[in-house]
Every structure is written in structure tokens, then in C-alpha cells.
Amino acid sequence: MARKKYSIPRTLFIVLLAIIAVANVIYYVTNYFNSAPHIKYPAFGIDIPPDYLIHGIDVSRYQRTINWDDVKEMQVKNIKIGFAFIKATEGTDRIDEQFERNWASAEEAGIPKGAYHFFIAGKSGKAQANNFIQIAKLKTGDLPPVLDIEQAYNVPPAKLDSEIVEWLQLVEDHDHAKPIIYTNILFYDKYLKTSFDEYPIWIAHYLQPAKPRIDHQWLFWQHSEKGRVNGIKVPVDFNVFAGDSAAFKRLLIQ
């Protein structure tokens, strides 16, 4: 008895090929974004402010998977990456999904590192401090903790001040290091200028050739958000430190 032959309908065959093609694209795209990159740039891609000795970056999940050895090895003339601030937490319960990997890998690469918390105005300062403390395990040789505060969300200034003070005091007591406040020029002038002068300032102010326009003495200056660094697929924030290597070493947690 002759065996009956079965054939796949042409439409179904085309659909199966399309599914396989899409699956392959998803696999390769996922693998690309999750693997540690070895991307090389001929230079940092931005104008570097003159007369500063120590340069660094700050990163979060938006920089995806970073190859920290490539970051460490990159040098253009006499400029290299001398420190990195890494996002740890946000609000009362959020944890940056890349923090654990970035924290461990930056240390393995020998890059001085610090952790920062993105502050959500209107949320408990205590709860936000506890979120940061539980995740960012700072130790000797690390940079001081950083509070990133950029938006008020219409919170009354007095309440905003009290929330910020609560975070700063709790984190300082825990880490035995005075926290650094990160903010931008406009927010600093409107909300922080008269209340937090005792704290070191890390100021964001772009398109300034030599220094930010701020009367308060600053410790770090974030001068660009469009830098390029080996081992990082996307643009990254660039910073300078207002001091020499001896001053930088004194800043580290003892």
C-alpha cells in the first residue's frame, strides 16, 4: 500500500520561517545588550575642561552592561578615568539593576568608586536613607555617599529640607562620612543655596568651558552628559574633581 505524503502548506511554512527569523533577531539583540562590551573610541567625544587633574564618570542602568577593564585602560593623552559614581538606589525601595555588577566590577578594575541615591521629594527621608544603607555597603577607600536631588515635585521647601536633612544625617551616621549633594545649578539656587552650604557640592552645569557658574565652592563638576568611554555602549556623564591627587585621597572614606 502506497504511503500517503504529507506537505506543509506554503503559508504555514512562511510563518514558521518568520518566527525563526524573529527568534534569531531577539537572541542576538539580547546577547548584544547583556554582554560586556568591548567598544573602542578614538577619544572621549567631548571637550574636556582644562586644568583639572582627575576625571571621572557616573553611571546607572542606562549605561547597560559595562566592561570596566576597558574603562580603566582608556587614556587619551594624559586624561583617563580616575573615579566612578554608581547609582545604587532610588526612592524608598528601588534598586538600580546594574548596581551590584557595576560596584563589584569597578572595584576589580581598580577604579575608585562611590555610590549615589536618587532622592524622591515627598517620600520619607528615613525610608530612603535605609534603602541606600541596605544596598550600598561603603567601606574604606570608597568615595563618600552621594544624595542626588534634582526635583521638588511641588513639595513645600520646609518639608523638602527636613526630608533631605533626615537622609543626610542617617547616612552620615552610618557610613561615618559626610555625604556629597549632587544637583544642578537651577535646583541649587532655588532650594539648597541657603540651607546646605556645610555639605560638599557636586554640581551639574553643561556647556561651560572652564568651571560652573556657582558661588559655592564645589567638589565635583559634571560638565557633560555626552562623553564616550571604551567599554560603554552609550553616552556617559563626565566629571572633574576640584583638587589634586592628595586632596582626592583625603576625600576617600578612612
Distance between the termini: 88 Å
Enumerate how many helices there are, as a single number.
7
Order of helical and strand elements: HEHEEEHEHEHEHEEEH
Q: Which runs of at least 5 residues are low in confidence (pLDDT < 50)?
A: 1-6, 25-34
Structural class: alpha/beta
What's the mean pLDDT score? 89
- Major β-sheet, in short? 8 strands, mixed, barrel
Total E-strand runs: 10
Q: How much of the sequence is in beta strands?
A: 15-25%
Approximate shape: globular
**Name given to the CATH architecture:** Alpha-Beta Barrel
- In percent, how helical is the residue content? 25-40%
Q: How many domain regions?
A: 1
* CATH fold annotation: TIM Barrel
The CATH superfamily is known as Glycosidases
CATH class division = Alpha Beta
How are the strands of the biggest sheet laid out side by side? Answer: 1-3-5-6-7-8-9-10
C-alpha Rg (nearest Å): 23 Å
